[in-house]
Amino acid sequence: MSAPIAAPGAGAGRSGRVGLWLRGRGAAAGPVLAVVLAIFALWYVGTVALNAQWTLDQAARADREVGFAELVADTMAQDRPMLPAPHQVAVELYDTVIAQEITSRRSLVYHAWVTLSATLAGFGFGTVLGILLAVGIVHNRAMDMSVMPWAIASQTIPILAIAPMIIVVLNSIGIQGIVPKAIISAYLSFFPVVVGMVSGLRSPGAMQMDLLRTYSASRGQVFWKLRLPASIPYLFASLKVGIAASLVGAIVGELPTGAVQGLGARLLSGSYYGQTVQIWSALLMAAVCAALLVGAIGAVQRAVLRRMGMDR
Amino acid sequence: MKHGPAAGLLRGGAGPLWIGAALVCAALVDLRLVPVVAVWAGAWWVNTWLAAQRRTRVTTLAVPLLFGLTLLVLWEMVVRLFGVPAVILPPPSAIGARIGAEVPTLWEDFVQTFLRGALTGYVLGCGAALLTAVAIDRSPFLQRGLLPVGNFIAALPIVGTAPILVMWFGFDWESKAAVVVVMVFFPMLVNTVAGLAATDAMQRDLMKTYAAGYWPTLLKLRLPAAMPFVFNGLKICTTLALIGAIVAEFFGSPTRGMGFRISTEVGRLSLDMVWAEITVAALAGSAFYGAVALAERRVTFWHPSQR
Fold this sequence. Notes:
The complex is a heterodimer.
Chain A (H helix, E strand, L loop, with lengths): L13 H12 L3 H33 L6 H8 L10 H13 L9 H32 L1 H13 L9 H10 L5 H24 L4 H9 L4 H35 L9 H11 L2 H32 L5
Chain B lengths: L4 H25 L3 H20 L4 H25 L10 H10 L1 H34 L3 H15 L7 H8 L3 H24 L4 H9 L4 H36 L8 H10 L3 H29 L8
């Protein structure tokens, strides 16, 4: 039975997305700008549409009429709007990013760093473990046949659901702070790296393997001179998937214990107190972090591949 | 990575030696480790032997199954031998018993989270993405603009929109479905747009020689040709849908649902129930993925990866 789950591109399917993204970067900036502007326009329309009800209710309670211009102005200046206007979020971002000391608890940079440090620690750990396991899988048939089906199947299950349990259990045995979140980030980045790295280490064709055999290369030589270099593009593709997953893991890891630091904590407290502007600014900060992380890996990838002579 | 029969025999012959050494080491550290190491080493030895056999349907199934079973047995042994408290790690037998005892609750949560939240959102989100992809396919300008933006958004931590959507759509499953729609939309869109571009000039020219217009070309050539990409998107989205539905419940839900149950039972430290929910979530996720993969085999039987 050729398991459909193991079909080419099935498990590490997200790497295609990354490839497309890279290709898309070369495209003209004009269309992208148009789409981004359209999104902002839609956002403003949505602001008016979603917040109008509250303004009308207030006006009805005060027993007065509101004109259209007043209505529009009011929908963009509410304290707890259903949907804050982009400029409200921008002001909040300015207040919490630029106007605060970055060590202050009110600084979003501080919260972002709390989340990022857990993300990076977990991501590093998960990546190293993933690469080691992949090397083992490629060189040991028993390991391949025992572990690989589970590693692939693990990509189809919502492992993020384990996050609250890890946090609480580690909390109950006295481990707090960065470690539980890092563990969640680690296991979320672990499986994509294993799957991507195994296909990368297996990517050399029969011709190349035969060539090394004619040189009577040892297993170690085949590994260092052929398999490892050939696996690097695959590794980077799965690293991008892994780091995005790590960030989500760290954010979700902050939810269950009612943590007071980190982007997840900002999301949660925002949702408790109806502070929508805070939620949106935390969300945008998370988006910026994700973009920076994926962008950084992309930069390293380009540099490494160029150095290896593998760039397109 | 081929081993001749001699290598396999050698390995089998050296196996017991290693097992003996490991057992002695275990006994020196802690006597309770001896049975644990014995089970591990024994199962590993069997697996090594099985893997060295000719690869058949039986061995490709038996090896991972034996590995999984061994892990479960080890888990049970470690918990019992070392007296790990149930609030840290319940044994698999307790989890199994809990699953058996709580079938109605688990089913209720499954219906709430999977059938109502995840599946509704999945169908709506993927359907909308498919239609959007077909719509923007006629405009190269929109494609060039939407693709980079879509790819960017697809890499963002979209689960973070959960608190906002819970605020908009209320605590019940509608908000979970909305989170799922947002999560699956962009991966699906990007995959479908890529798929619609996957025909080659020869095929399009052939359609032109038949004087086929836009719609016949779309229905008879481009959509079928896009199916491998579409199904790749659909498969990625199965996992995303479940994650979205479960995590959105952490931000508020009625008193049922997998995410709700996980977060409250974790708070009450009844971890066997949490593991039971996780088991259900894992089974649901795999079954969902499997169903989509099965449909893919039916639809894209012509594609090289399916042969």
